């Protein structure tokens, strides 16, 4: 769907919902929306969805002569408001600006013109953005619309396969926004499908039977690699604060405030469609901020933190088991929705982007830099596993955010896929002895040692209470 169509769709909603309520001051957004999409890759995955930028040109379609036998999806919830903790930090910076007694000068002068901060209701924190709760109803980057559009793309892509597979369970982690994303997706698929939404608990007590293993992992300490991450220079934050303070004598923004401006930019895009604060940064500052996010993801949630291999093995083992059982299972479409870190953990164990080189905190690398957090897990991220058979053989392949990403060591099948037996061998080497329960010290919070919901949902019926996290 083009951006124009998105806007029209959003406006169609406006006519019925709150026809005369469009604040005039956001009229300029109509012309400005769409002009900031080049910034999305620099926002650490907090901003709106975008397709994987380094598409190798491999068609997503099933290679000719092949037939799909199973589709799996692990997707992130869509565009959202900030978390409670980020929201509070942003409001602190916003307060500092509001208390500035003079007119703003320079790049902050947009605040003088009737600007209203994009967090207008604390109840929206943690929540998916929708047409209804958007700051400007013409916002084309809502999580709601992204999920509905994704479902339509899924339908179009796999139409023939879905024709014979219209009854299946969809799985969502028990977070409100994750659930909502799955619900919008299901709604958009329409009533030709009979879908049972299973909501899997995010409570630590669910142990290994979870889509969000981070919450069941008391052994995981994000501070463990702080010494490495702290080597990264934050001079770009000081530059931003100094520049803005220089333009506005008496304004005392700190490095922390400068850092908050990036999250403001990302989440205002999700909630409004356009953000003046994004225009404060130089391209160089955006690049430095983006690499900072790569570093933190790498050392807290990714390959730089050895425990993650075991955390990601939980879903990867289940995924392998589903692939191996594709002939026996009636269900052939396995769609799951969760959080960004859980997807990153899984990609880490899978090794799809693992070139074996550690990210260097002492400078900003360019050549050979494959670990781009925002490219993997923007809002609405989607990782598909395709299994297809051609002649007598089966093959497995990954599609990350609309791009086929071949396994570097196994891509000689049709469409750069990996022959299934070779794939199982590869995947089992990566997961061998990666024991989530033990590595995470799960026993201190739960006795549930196995992920079973894919196999017992029909009798257990997962309907966890939704959490605001
Ligand atoms: C829909 O699927 C459920 C199983 O999840 C089944 O019990 C029910 O009969 C199905 N309904 C229709 C209309 O096919
Ligand atoms: C595991 O949990 C137990 C009980 O809470 C605690 O005593 C122990 O220190 C933990 N071990 C690790 C490695 O976190
Ligand atoms: C306004 O900011 C500009 C830089 O954008 C600066 O040159 C100028 O001195 C500032 N004016 C005041 C009154 O501070
Ligand atoms: C900024 O800091 C200066 C020097 O400490 C102080 O005089 C001024 O009041 C502060 N400005 C604001 C808006 O707090
Ligand atoms: C498929 O397997 C059958 C039985 O093993 C064999 O006869 C046939 O030649 C195979 N076809 C291809 C295209 O490899
Ligand atoms: C790919 O193969 C090379 C050489 O055998 C090996 O060093 C590397 O670890 C492999 N990479 C992955 C992701 O398995
Ligand atoms: C994944 O499976 C391997 C065996 O293939 C096992 O060694 C490992 O402990 C399993 N990990 C999890 C988290 O299930
Ligand atoms: C696990 O089971 C043991 C033995 O039944 C029990 O004592 C312990 O409290 C349980 N732990 C948790 C976290 O539920
Ligand atoms: C779920 O169980 C019901 C009742 O046993 C059965 O009719 C239905 O086919 C099952 N659905 C799936 C997808 O296994
Ligand atoms: C889930 O379903 C069970 C059985 O129908 C019910 O007892 C329980 O209250 C439900 N839980 C929630 C959170 O809705």
Walk me through this protein's architecture.
The chain is an alpha/beta fold and 469 residues long. The protein has one domain (3-460): Rossmann fold (3-Layer(aba) Sandwich), CATH 3.40.50. 38% of the residues lie in helices and 11% in strands. The protein is built from 16 helices and eight strands. Strands 1, 2, 3, 4, 5, 6, 7 and 8 form an eight-stranded mixed β-sheet that branches. The relative contact order is 0.19. Mean pLDDT is 95; it is low at 1-16. Residues 219, 441, 444 line the site of one 2-acetamido-2-deoxy-beta-D-glucopyranose (NAG). One 2-acetamido-2-deoxy-beta-D-glucopyranose binds next to loops. This is acid phosphatase. Disulfide bonds join 66-390, 217-440, 265-278, 410-418. Its EC number is 3.1.3.2. It catalyses: a phosphate monoester + H2O = an alcohol + phosphate. Residues 1-19 form the signal peptide.
SSE diagram, text form:
Elements lengths: L2 H15 L11 H4 L33 E11 L7 H15 L44 H15 L1 H5 L3 E7 L2 H14 L4 E7 L25 H4 L5 H13 L7 H18 L10 H19 L5 H18 L8 E6 L1 H11 L22 H4 L5 E9 L2 E8 L2 E2 L13 E2 H12 L4 H4 L13 H8 L9
Parallel strand pairs: 1-4, 2-3, 2-4
Antiparallel strand pairs: 1-5, 5-6, 6-7, 6-8
Helix pairs in contact: 3-9, 4-6, 8-9, 11-12, 11-14
The structure holds 2-acetamido-2-deoxy-beta-D-glucopyranose (10 copies).
The site of one 2-acetamido-2-deoxy-beta-D-glucopyranose (NAG) has 11 residues, from helix 11 and helix 14.
């Amino acid at each position: 769907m083009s951006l124009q169509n998105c806007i029209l769709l959003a406006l169609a909603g406006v006519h019925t919902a709150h026809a005369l309520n469009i604040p005039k001051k956001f009229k300029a957004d109509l012309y400005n929306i769409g002009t900031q999409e080049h910034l999305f890759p620099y926002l650490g995955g907090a901003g709106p969805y975008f397709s994987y930028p380094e598409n190798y040109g491999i068609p997503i379609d099933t290679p000719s002569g092949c037939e799909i036998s199973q589709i799996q999806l692990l997707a992130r919830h869509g565009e959202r408001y900030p978390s409670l903790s980020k929201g509070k930090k942003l409001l602190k910076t916003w307060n500092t600006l509001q208390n500035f007694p003079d007119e703003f000068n320079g790049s902050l002068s947009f605040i003088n013109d009737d600007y209203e901060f994009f967090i207008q209701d604390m109840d929206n924190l943690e929540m998916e953005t929708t047409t209804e709760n958007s700051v400007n109803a013409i916002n084309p980057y809502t999580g709601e619309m992204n999920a509905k559009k994704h479902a339509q793309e899924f339908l179009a892509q796999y139409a023939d396969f879905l024709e014979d597979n219209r009854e299946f369970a969809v799985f969502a982690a028990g977070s409100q926004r994750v659930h909502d994303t799955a619900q919008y997706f299901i709604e958009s698929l329409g009533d030709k499908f009979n879908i049972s939404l299973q909501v899997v608990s995010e409570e630590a007590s669910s142990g290994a039977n979870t889509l969000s293993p981070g919450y069941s992992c008391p052994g995981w300490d994000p501070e463990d690699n702080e010494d490495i991450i702290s080597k990264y220079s934050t001079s770009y934050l000081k530059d931003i604060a100094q520049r803005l303070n220089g333009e506005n004598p008496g304004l005392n923004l700190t490095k922390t405030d400068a850092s908050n401006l990036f999250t403001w930019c990302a989440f205002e895009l999700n909630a409004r469609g356009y953000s003046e604060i994004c225009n404060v940064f130089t391209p160089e500052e955006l690049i430095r901020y983006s690499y900072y996010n790569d570093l933190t993801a790498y050392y807290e949630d990714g390959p730089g933190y050895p425990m993650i291999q075991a955390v990601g093995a939980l879903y990867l083992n289940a995924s392998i088991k589903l692939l191996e059982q594709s002939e026996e299972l009636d269900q052939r479409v396995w769609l799951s929705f969760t959080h960004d870190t859980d997807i990153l953990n899984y990609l880490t164990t899978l090794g799809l982007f693992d070139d074996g080189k550690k990210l260097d905190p002492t400078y900003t690398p360019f050549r050979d830099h494959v670990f781009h957090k925002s490219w993997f897990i923007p809002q609405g991220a989607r990782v598909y596993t395709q299994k297809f058979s051609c002649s007598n053989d089966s093959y497995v392949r990954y599609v990350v955010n609309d791009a086929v990403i071949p396994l570097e060591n196994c891509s000689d099948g049709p469409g750069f896929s990996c022959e299934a037996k070779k794939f199982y061998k590869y995947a089992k080497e990566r997961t061998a002895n990666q024991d989530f329960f033990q590595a995470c010290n799960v026993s201190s919070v739960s006795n549930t040692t196995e992920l079973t919901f894919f196999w017992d949902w029909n009798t257990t019926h997962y309907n966890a209470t939704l959490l605001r996290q």
